Structures are given as C-alpha cells and as structure tokens.
Amino acid sequence: MKTMAMALLLVLQLCFISMEFVESSSHHYDHKIVRLPGQPSVDFQHFSGYISVSDHQKNHKALFYYFAEAEKNPASKPLVLWLNGGPGCSSVGVGAFSENGPFRPDGQVLVRNEYSWNIEANMLYLETPVGVGFSYSRHSSNDVAVDDEATARDNLVFLQRWFNKFPQYKHRDLFLTGESYAGHYIPQLAKLMVEANSKEKLFNLKGLALGNPVLEFATDLNSRAEYFWSHGLISDSTYRMFTSVCNYSRYVSEYYRDSVSPVCSRVMNQVSIETSKFVDKYDVTLDVCISSVLSQSKAISPNQMTQRIDVCVEDKIVSYLNRKDVQKALHAKLVGVRRWDVCSDDTSILDYQMLDLEIPTISLVGSIVKAGIPVLVYSGDQDSAIPLTGSRTLVDRLARELGLNTTVPYRVWFQGKQVGGWTQVYGNILSFATIRGASHEAPFSQPERSLMLFKSFLQGRALPLVF
Which one Pfam family would you cite for this protein (predicted)? Predict the structure, then answer.
C-alpha cells in the first residue's frame, strides 16, 4: 500500500512538473518566430513581440524586443541584454540586424552572421525608449518627459515582465551590454537592479560591458580634438582653436540650448571643412560601404547630422524591417508612425531630454563595481565620436578613486594570429580594452575580434595573451 501511495505521489509530481513546463513554455509561445522571410534554416529558437511597461490602458506603453536563443545548449548559456544608443536608435535594427545578431539583411534574404553573439549567449535586443523602432506609446510622447530616469524605469519594468513570459531565464546569469548612449542607459538600469536586489533577489546580474560609451560628457567629447589631430584630420592651428577657443563639449552644450555662439560656430565650421564630410567619423580609416547612418552618436555629433554619405547598410535594414511580411513574422506593428526607422529623431515621435547627456554616469559605474559586479569598458579604436583616449582616461581615474590596483598591466591581446587590441584590468573587476581596427559599432566592423572580447567577458577571463 505504501509503495502504491509513493508511486501515485511520484506520478502526481511528474504531472505537476510537466504542467509547470507546459505553462512556462506556453507563456512565450505567441511570441515565437516561425520563420522570418528569407531566413536560412537554423537550429535555435527566436522570439519577438511587445512587453507592456505601463499599467494604464489610457497611457499604454509597450517596448518591442527581439530574442535569439543560443545556437547550442541555450539552457546552459547566460542571458545578455543588448542596448543601442542615440538616444533614439534601434537595438533591433542596429544591434541585432547589423552588428552582433544571428542574421543580416541582404536584398530579399537574410544571411547568417558567423560571428553572432548568440554562439555564446542567449541574446535579448530591446528597442528603448518608447518611440524607438517598433516600441510605442498610445499617447504623444510630447505629453510625457522622455529622459534617462524614465527610460531606466521602463527598462527595469520590461525585464521584470519579460521574465514573467520567459520564467526559465529568471535565475540565469544576466549581463548588460551595449554601446554609445547605452553608457547612460546601462549603468542607470544596473543601479535600479542593484537597488531592487537589496530588497529581494530579482536579478542575477553578473556584469556590464560598455562599448564606446558616453560616461562623462566633457572628457568623452573633448578627447575628440586630440583624436582628430593625431590622425591627421585637422591642422595644428585648428587643433589649438578646438582646445582653447571652443571645445566640443561647449559646442554640443550650446547646440542643445539653441544658443550656438559665433565663435563656436566658426571653430566647428573649420573642423567640419578639414575633417571632410567624406570621412566617416565613426570609422576614420574605412572608405568602403559602411553604416555611417547607424550613427547612434548623431546626438553627440549634431553638426554632422546632415553629412550622411553612404547609406547602403542602413538601406538594407530599413527596407527589410518595413516589409509587411517581415513585420507580421516579427509580431510587430507601426503605431503613430508611417515606417520603421533606424533612429527616431523626429520630435513628434521621440522628444528626448538631450541635456541628460551632460550628467556623468561614470560614478554609477563606480557604484556597480563597489557592489561587486564586474564592468568592462571597450573601445573600437577607429571611432572619433567617442574616442578610446577619453574612455581609457575615465576608467583609469575611476580605478584610482576606488583604490583598485592594476591586476593585468596594459598589454596587447590576440585573436587568431593577429593583435586584437590592448587591455588593462584593475582589481580583477574593472577592465578597459580596445578592439583594433573597429569603428563606433565594433561588432559590425570587427566581428571576429568583438566575439573574442565578448566570450572572454562572459567567462570572466583575461583577454588572450598568446595566439
């Protein structure tokens, strides 16, 4: 009798586990992508759709995401959130479909990216804030302040509710990654996560990786002058003006206050003439078909916003994501806009508080490190928008402020038989690295080296010293 009772109990437990599995897997079934138009066959699952980040139907806000599970053994791989910058640029269009996602549009079809980051992790791409890409708000964003604080809050709610839909990922190792203005988004989101965890362990946050990030307005932007000069883009006399008469942070600050002074206007005009509109500021050495308009830095390069020469890569993404059959396959819709765009800079769609650009986030990075969470800052070394020199200076200064000793001295790292870049590590928790030959969008321009950096970051290992 006792044996029968135990057998019955075991059957009931198995039924319960089975029901629990069905319930958890059915949570996200409606978001599963059967097949994207022109997509090659793959062994991994991918999903996309909307997560509501508001509780009122009247002020309904929904953020759109694309999620590609790891190519192999997704259950054993970490979860990685990727955010692009701008503010106002799409993590789906830029991140997933041109940088480190599994596919890239090419005419009517998608081709595999052999250096996709979902080789190493389950990759989650979020279009944030509302008004970016397919993400939307039911009311005009002019009625609500869209700023860093609101964005961080919405991103936190998104993650909490996304976990409700994908409960099997709730306790998975979680990494936050991104580039450009994500230097604001990610530390601010991480701060809210650490605060939430102090009350109840909700997030298994294991690390942050920030690519060519805006961390401290003046340092990041003013390092541009020396970068231009050292790469031969401006003359000695213009360099002297650019560092004394009107530096770049002053110009951007005046620009967003609609008060550009005659002296700054004169200096910037000379800089623009000498650097030439035929050189891509996000990759100063490349002269082939590149994503110059994937400029998440357009906000921090306002004088260059009309200097868009080569749009071939963006054209493919825009064309693909505006196809009705693609939108249907992605469970996406256009709300309040006529078409999907890589970057939303129309103030009727996205009215972002651009003066938030001036608020430093490097101190937040320090608080994350103090909370015991590793941080990597990396730089594509051909980017003049947020040059490596500014980022390196900020990381070194932060290490000294935190009292962290150098644990890996400044040295080269290898990918294959070539130097992949340079790196320095402080206290085994704060790292800086460059990716040799990479642009502002490092995974786009140097995919193999970027994947090596990403893999080392996830594994908590120093970048390889030998090939």
Answer: Peptidase_S10
